[in-house]
Each structure stands twice: as C-alpha cells, then as structure tokens.
Design brief:
Blueprint (H helix, E strand, L loop, with lengths): L6 E5 L2 E5 L4 H12 L4 E4 L10 H22 L8 E7 L6 H9 L2 E6 L19 H10 L2 E4 L11 H15 L5 E3 L5 H9 L4 E5 L1 H5 L2 H6 L15 H12 L5 E3 L8 H4 L14 H12 L2 H9 L1 H5 L8 E10 L15 E9 L1
Parallel strand pairs: 2-3, 3-4, 4-5, 5-6, 6-7, 7-8, 8-9
Antiparallel strand pairs: 1-10, 10-11
Helix pairs in contact: 1-2, 3-4, 6-9
The structure holds (4S)-2,6-dioxohexahydropyrimidine-4-carboxylic acid and zinc ion.
Length: 351
C-alpha cells in the first residue's frame, strides 16, 4: 500500500452524524468539529428535544454563535466555515403539518430513536406505526429518515441485528423514503445496507471502525469507549472496515461524536457516548493511509454523504501535515476519544 506524502489536501469533509448539546458543552465542542468539517448533521436529542421549527431555528443560531464565540477569541476559522445541517426528532403521532414547517425551516433529516434505545430517548418511538403520517410527509418532501437501529429490549450485542426486520418494514412501506442506518456496528447491519435498496445508506463512526469490546471491557473498564450501539467483536469491526474501504457509496462518515461530562460517564448507569470530534478526521487519514487510498478517504468523508443527502460537494479543501501530537486528556470536563494517545496528522490549513 502506497503511503501518503507528508502533506495532503483533500476536499473539506462532512460529518453526517454529530451531537453538540447546548450551553457550555456546545461552546467547547462545536469549534472542535468546525476545525475539521465543513458541515455536520446535528442530532436533535437535546433537552428539550428538537421537535418543531421554532426550536430548530433557535438551536441552529445557538450553534452558529458557539462556533463564532470561540473563533472570535482564539482561532481564525471564519464563522462561515461551518454549516450545521439540522435534524428533528420524530415522536409518536407527529403530524404532517409539523414536518412541513420543519422542512421550511431547513430540516434535512428526521431522527427515529426507538424508545429507550440510547441517551435521551425515553420519548422515542415504539413502532414505526406511530409515525406513519410523519414518514409519508418526509418521503414527499425529500427529508431523510435517520434511524438509531437498535431494538432496546434485546441482548445488547444483538440489538442492531434484531432491529433489522423493523427497518425492512419501513423500507417496504415507504419505497421512496431515503433512509440512513446510523452508526452501523455489526456484520448484519453492514450486510443490510449492502443488500438493501439504493435509497438505504449507512453511516460509519471512527470508533466502530477502530475499536472492539476489548477496548471497552477487555482490560480495566473504559467508560470513555462506551457508546450505543456498543462496539462489538473483531468480526463486526472487520465488516465495518471492509464497508468503509469498499468504495461503496452507500457508506459514509458520521462520527456520532457525543460528549458527556466525565462525572456523567464515570458512575453507575454512566452515559453512552464517545467524544471523538477532536480526533476523528486525523484518525481517518491514518486508517485510510494504512488500508486504503486518498481517493477512498475523500469519497467516504467528502462525497458520498453529500451525494446521499443531495447536497453540493464542498468546494474548499483542508490540508493536513504528518506531525505527531498528543490528544489532550480533557476538553473542559469532557474526556475525548483516545485521550493521551499520539496521533499522526495535524491540520495545516483549511480554506
Ligand atoms: O453513544 C451514543 N451517544 N449513542 C447515541 O445514539 C446517542 C449518543 C448521545 O446522545 O450521547
Ligand atoms: Zn448519535
């Protein structure tokens, strides 16, 4: 495998699955994404959740201000360098009228959280049959259905696999709806995307690409590697790696970077979520350098997601240089993915 030169430029990437939270966490985390990514699909599982156009509009403004706030103080990344793509949370009985208003406000995706499947999903959906009106509206309006594909009452390692029958019912009833199976984590999830129709895609995170259950539980327990769906076996990871390296345009990058203060991660009943935004892109560069190519990397991070969402490709580029650095132990009170580890690439310029 040919390695990259010591400086590489690629089309600016998009992160098609990102949790930014609100308030102080948002101010700390949003600039970490804006540093690397041109756009990001912002998840709606805030408190309160993004379920109507008013909240979507004010949350987008809060995000833009958070990026700008830090940029004003300590970086030279201009505000217009980062565009939040907004999603809303589907809820039982949601009406077409609400979906139309959300679409007008700029929503590009609706997120389906099965009830109780992950952080802040107690108000989620028990069955797609509770959201038929919203799904029809989304199909008509060209809004993407993003699914957290886990069946919450199954055994933890089988939850994705056991959700797939529900996914295929949705596909059957809404053949024109574009659907993303978010953060694929298992052989079965990967195969469902590969064998499903063209309007079914899948996002892949950096943590499902790099780690397994061993990194969560194999030594001392590491709560910073705990997420939903949980990282699984080496076989599952291999299927995910092969999918990312296959050049199949159904698979694209979505970090699922999901920050939680350390105190909420290290406790009984600690929260699921890995804060990977500061390191995701340089880790992807290393992964594709070792196992793939620059072209495969660029398609995975900067083309296939945009194409699936019918968005123009970014016209700007990012340049990285081969330069070792240590991942900070903390960003405020949030411990990032790979804290303390050495990463091989750093940002050089972004324009
Ligand atoms: O690990 C996760 N954290 N998975 C999710 O689906 C949600 C996320 C969060 O919001 O913390
Ligand atoms: Zn998520």
């Amino acid at each position: 495998m040919k390695s990259f030169s010591d400086k590489i430029s690629i089309r600016k990437p998009d992160d098609m699955h990102l949790h930014l939270r609100q308030g102080e966490i948002l101010k700390v985390c949003a600039p970490e994404s804006a540093k690397w990514f041109q756009r990001a699909m912002i998840m709606p599982n805030t408190i309160p959740p993004i379920i109507n156009s008013e909240r979507l509009i004010s949350y987008r403004k809060e995000i833009e201000e958070a990026v700008f706030y830090r940029n004003n103080r300590e970086s030279n990344i201009p505000k217009e360098n980062f565009t939040p793509l907004m999603s809303f949370k589907l809820y039982p009985g949601m009406k077409e009228e609400e979906v139309i208003k959300l679409s007008k406000a700029g929503a590009v995706a609706g997120k389906l959280y099965p009830e109780g499947s992950t952080t802040n999903s107690e108000d989620g959906v028990k069955s797609w049959k509770q959201i038929t009106e919203a799904l029809s509206a989304m199909s008509k309006l060209g809004i993407i259905l993003a699914i957290h594909g886990e069946k919450p009452d199954s055994f933890v390692l089988d939850r994705e696999k056991d959700y797939l029958p529900e996914l295929f019912q949705i596909i059957e009833h809404y053949p024109d709806l574009k659907i993303v199976l978010e953060h694929v984590s298992s052989v079965e999830g990967v195969n469902a995307v590969i064998n499903g129709p063209v309007n079914l895609g899948g996002t892949i995170t950096i943590h499902h690409l790099l780690i397994t259950l061993d990194d969560l539980l194999g030594g001392g327990i590491n709560p910073h590697n705990f997420c939903k769906p949980v990282v699984k076996t080496p076989k599952d990871r291999e299927a995910i790696q092969n999918a990312a390296l296959s050049g199949n345009r159904k698979f694209f990058f979505g970090s699922d970077s999901a920050p939680h203060p350390e105190s909420l991660k290290i406790k009984t009943g600690g929260n699921a979520g890995i804060f990977s935004a500061p390191v995701a892109f340089p880790l992807l560069v290393s992964f594709f350098e070792k196992n793939g190519s620059k072209e495969l990397l660029e398609n995975f991070t900067s083309r296939y997601g945009a194409e699936f969402y019918n968005l123009p490709l970014n016209s700007s580029s990012i340049t990285l240089e081969r330069k070792e650095s240590k991942v900070p132990e903390r960003f405020s009170d949030i411990v990032p993915f790979m804290a303390g580890a050495t990463i091989e690439w750093d940002i050089s310029t972004s324009e």
